[in-house]
Amino acid sequence: MNWDAVSFDWNQVRAFLATVEEGSFSGAARALKTTQPTIGRQISELEAKLGVTLVERSVRGPTLTEAGRDLLDHVRAMGEAATLISMVAASKSEDVTGEVTVTATDLLSASILPGLLAPLREMAPGIRVRIVASADMQNLTQREADIAIRHVRPEQPDLIAKHVGDFRANLYATTSYLDRVGRPRSPRDIAAYDFVGNADPERLMAPLHNMGIPARAESFVMSSASGVVAWELVKAGYGVSMQPEVLGDGEPGIEKVLPDLPSLEFPIWLVTHRELQTSRRIRIVFDLLARSMAEAGSGVI
């Protein structure tokens, strides 16, 4: 840790973040229960410490500079971490207990969630987590789950959604399968291979064609509605499949079909209902997942 580089005050960072979130110095002052001159002074002190201009002042209000935009995601991450610290500290004295239900696809539930949730046992041992392997948004709207991880932003007004990163996927197959059929020299060559798909393999046709792979419906020799089953079919050597990079890159005996093939990206949304604002146990799990996913970045999602 380079302690000399951390020379600014959290209150200065908080003033900058509040100004961005509230849209004005006066709004930030109201949110932080201070004065507008104090907000302006704290931001100026932060700019002096960092050696950059973060906000342009004008009669129309503050406008982020390029440097301010570049730092904003990091500042927001600091704000979320500070919130989580406060909540975890409070949970130690207020004994936060109860069940929190998290829902995600079966593949994410089995392969990724266990690692993301591991710190919770030490941070808040009174919270019990129930994982529901499902892609149905009704889990939340019918209050069957507290938190959902989804690829699509929900439209329901009573749900809160946070974009926590992008899911990256690529084409993988076993080394033994590629040894047998040969390794492709171009995306077009991959169209001749066998494919493993999901419950509706034809939905993958357009993305594959956009990648320069003229695959056909009959190329999908195996498929399953279960992501876990599809992944096991890939590991069994049935053919090529679009899979998360975090799984494919870390699995022995599995390799990218074409190393230079660009990855597909899908957004990841962390979703909950408005009880997040009043339930400490849900907030602790939500913030832990948001922070873990942001820290993991492309390595997990």
What's the topology here?
Elements: H1 10-22, H2 25-32, H3 36-50, E1 55-56, E2 63-64, H4 66-94, E3 98-104, H5 106-111, H6 113-117, H7 120-123, E4 127-133, H8 138-141, E5 147-150, E6 159-174, H9 175-181, H10 187-190, E7 195-197, H11 205-210, E8 220-223, H12 227-235, E9 241-244, H13 245-248, E10 254-256, E11 264-273, H14 280-296
Parallel strand pairs: 3-4, 3-5, 7-8
Antiparallel strand pairs: 1-2, 5-11, 6-9, 6-10, 6-11
Commentary on this structure:
This protein is an alpha/beta fold. It has two domains: 3-92, Winged helix-like DNA-binding domain superfamily/Winged helix DNA-binding domain (Arc Repressor Mutant, subunit A); 97-301, 3-Layer(aba) Sandwich (D-Maltodextrin-Binding Protein, domain 2). The protein is 44% helix and 21% strand. It contains 14 helices and eleven strands. Helix 2 packs across helix 3. The longest helix is centred in the first third of the chain and has 29 residues, at 66-94. The model has no long low-confidence stretch (mean pLDDT 85).
Quaternary organization = single chain
Number of beta-strand segments? 11
Order of helices and strands: HHHEEHEHHHEHEEHHEHEHEHEEH
Helix tally equals 14
- Known CATH architecture of the largest domain: 3-Layer(aba) Sandwich
Strand content: 15-25%
CATH topology of the largest domain: D-Maltodextrin-Binding Protein, domain 2
Structural class: alpha/beta
Distance from first to last alpha carbon: 26 Å
The level 1 CATH classification of the largest domain is Alpha Beta
Specify the helix fraction band: 40-55%
* Average pLDDT metric: 85
Estimate the global geometry from the Cα principal axes: globular
